[in-house]
Every structure is written in C-alpha cells, then in structure tokens.
Amino acid sequence: MNMNLAVGGISEAEGSIVLTLSGRATIQHANEAKGALYGALCSSERVVVDVSGVTEVDPAIFQLLCSAHRSATELGKRMGLEPACPEPFRKAAEAAGFHPSGCGGEARGECLLVKEEDR
Questions:
Q1: What is the DSSP letter of 58?
Q2: How do beta strands 16-25 and 4-11 pair?
C-alpha cells in the first residue's frame, strides 16, 4: 500500500489546512510528504497533519515532521498532529529513538511527538 497524501479541510476563516497522511509513511514517500508539508506551510498560518490513517511509519517521517514543526515555529506559524500523537505513532517514535519528553529548544512544550497531557 502506498502512502496517499491529500490536502483537504481548508478553512479560510480559521486560516488552517489539514494534510492527511495515510498508508505507509516511510522513507520511500518522504519526498512526497516534504512537498505537501512545504506547500501547506507556505499557504497557511496553521497546518494540521492528520495521521489517523497511517499504518506504518519510520524515522524519516518523524525527522520530516520535526523539521517542519521547527520551521513553522520559526515562522510564527502553528503545526499539530490529529489526533494529537496517537499511541501507536508515539510508540514508533520512541522505538526510532525520539525522546519521549519531546524535542529540545523553544518548541519543547509543543513537541508533536509528546502526548497532549504530558506537555
């Protein structure tokens, strides 16, 4: 199964874009995901990445999401996951070596890979 990327849920009133990742979110699809994330960040003040349909994920996608989140923070934009870092996604991040307390620096309190209640 390939990873399908769909940009949807565009709401001009809220200034947000929902980017849906589904299927296998692996290194083979990182370039496609990077392009979609870049486009979403360029065209909106808030980007929500829907990961509810992701069936497999690897470190390349976590690195991509973290980099995009840092870029969004630096640009004064907001980026989040929906649902907010689901358990299988978070466990895969930890297994890949991403620290369970989140990223360092200014974005620590908003790290995408930390459960809402642990922030």
A1: -
A2: antiparallel
